[in-house]
Design a protein that fits this description.
Rossmann fold; two-stranded antiparallel sheet; 42% helix; binds nicotinamide-adenine-dinucleotide; SDR_fam; oxidoreductase; (3S)-3-hydroxyacyl-CoA dehydrogenase (NAD+) activity; testosterone dehydrogenase (NAD+) activity; EC 1.1.1.159
Amino acid sequence: MAHVRNLKGLVGIVTGGASGLGRATVERLVRQGASAVILDLPKSEGKTVAESLGEKCAFSPTDVTSEADVKNALELARTKFGRVDVVVNCAGIAVAAKTYNLNKQLPHSLEDFQRVINVNIAGTFNVIRLAAGEMGKNDPDEDGHRGVIVNTASVAAFDGQVGQAAYSASKGGIVGMTLPIARDLAPMGIRVVTIAPGLFATPLLVGLPEKVRNFLAKQVPFPSRLGDPGEYAHLVQSIVENPMLNGEVIRLDGALRMQP
Ligand SMILES: NC(=O)c1ccc[n+]([C@@H]2O[C@H](COP(=O)([O-])OP(=O)(O)OC[C@H]3O[C@@H](n4cnc5c(N)ncnc54)[C@H](O)[C@@H]3O)[C@@H](O)[C@H]2O)c1
């Protein structure tokens, strides 16, 4: 198993790292001896989270759809920690609206649809395209390996529910670009893997009434509960450590298949 890597000493950037799945990933990276830069909105908890994790963590206020913001964040990673080895794209938003609301005689807001597509697809791609250049500067290991990118789709990419047209389309876009980007970046020694989470206990779901949370948890065949963000972070670590994982989408969902 000569080529299995280790998180120790690596440098990661995590979008959406101030909350939920991204935050759990930042915490795991730092706990395992890596350094991490949190890329999240200025109004997020990014600064507090980074301070709580000490010197191995920094916050760069970033909107993932902004070229200037992402370039600043990469610059911070380079000046503070020397390079970038791992990119984890967790920043994402959702809206819930039917394509056409018959009762209100109202079509889905085009603006909302475009905002979700822009943040989830274009934002993810913006970070990948700029970070790839940064990782390309790394000295390759004996496998020719320079870095790894982990994206976050959702099971909604495959079994989207009523009201999820925009969200499912955006996550389907992330699934669809995983293989071509892995192929594009292969000559640089950069891997690309996407995680499609099921239902995880992040601020989004923890805020729901207990009855609703219990109902959702029961939909998961086994283990019949919401996923722990630490379990998502654990998969990120496995992906980083296993060099044969590339160009693939991995469901992390306890066998959940969402109902309409
Ligand atoms: N929680 C779940 O059950 C679940 C399931 C499937 C997929 N996901 C996906 O996982 C990712 C993380 O979800 P979460 O549950 O941790 O959500 P969350 O809301 O807790 O965290 C998302 C973070 O992204 C940040 N963000 C939003 N827009 C941004 C932008 N333009 N630029 C930078 N940062 C931005 C937010 O400030 C927030 O800190 C999302 O892409 C979500 O779609 C979550």
